[in-house]
């Protein structure tokens, strides 16, 4: 089409915004010509004639995208980062993290459902920086041979014991001075108390496990009663 789309760098390195009637968050496609989950792709011609393709990143389908649009100060992921991703599902968000960290980065993606895991493994065939791991994140010893030390752990397992799962994985794989990003779905943890109380008690659990929570953003309006907490490890 003849529509000229302008794509700009987002404040977060490796993330972009396609300017239009409605701005869209996007990442630079590592595998041009291919979508992962039928997301929209945007092709842009550079001044030197080379083409770049971006994939639109839907915040209704990705908590990390929702956190970015929610104004999170730092995601601690950028080109070249090593990321351990817990709760990868079929790899929707993992594919964007793969774009974001690029060919010099790596995403270790852990998912225990074999059903979702099949899509994840297929996606990883074309994305050499994604290492799919079909295991229970409660048992990191089972995949320790596959994972190197990482810069950041992103956790989206939606389990009542998710703080413990994050801590266990951090003790194996997160470097001292590394970071965590965790999505908290209040009613997965305790549906009998207000969401804010659940977030506060999760933050306490993290503090008790050598994490230093630094910021918290709501994922509303994209996800109801969800928060994203970001912080450092062993500092
Ligand atoms: N992060 C995904 C995305 O943005 O596309 C969505 C993740 S979904 C909310 C939670 C996922 O965590 C599910 O796919 C579930 O099977 C997985 N999960 C839950 N407990 C797990 C565990 N102990 N080990 C590995 N995966 C787990």
Automatic annotation (TrEMBL):
User: What residue intervals traverse the membrane?
Assistant: none
**Biological-process GO terms, alphabetical:** box C/D sno(s)RNA 3'-end processing
Checking InterPro entries in the record gives:
Fibrillarin, Fibrillarin_CS, SAM-dependent_MTases_sf
The UniProt record lists the keyword Repeat: no
By its UniProt entry, which PROSITE patterns does this protein fall under? FIBRILLARIN
Which keywords belong to this entry?
Methyltransferase, Nucleus, Ribonucleoprotein, RNA-binding, rRNA processing, S-adenosyl-L-methionine, Transferase
| Superkingdom to which the source organism belongs | Eukaryota
Q: Looking at the keywords, is RNA-binding present?
A: yes
Write out the GO cellular component annotations.
box C/D methylation guide snoRNP complex; small-subunit processome
Q: Which Pfam families match?
A: Fibrillarin (PF01269)
The catalytic activity, as recorded, is:
a ribonucleotide in rRNA + S-adenosyl-L-methionine = a 2'-O-methylribonucleotide in rRNA + S-adenosyl-L-homocysteine + H(+)
SMART domains per record? Fibrillarin (SM01206)
Per UniProt, subcellular location reads as: Nucleus, Nucleolus
What is a GO molecular function of this protein? histone H2AQ104 methyltransferase activity
HAMAP family (alphabetical): RNA_methyltransf_FlpA
Q: Which family does it belong to?
A: Belongs to the methyltransferase superfamily. Fibrillarin family.
- Protein's name in the database: Mediator of RNA polymerase II transcription subunit 36a
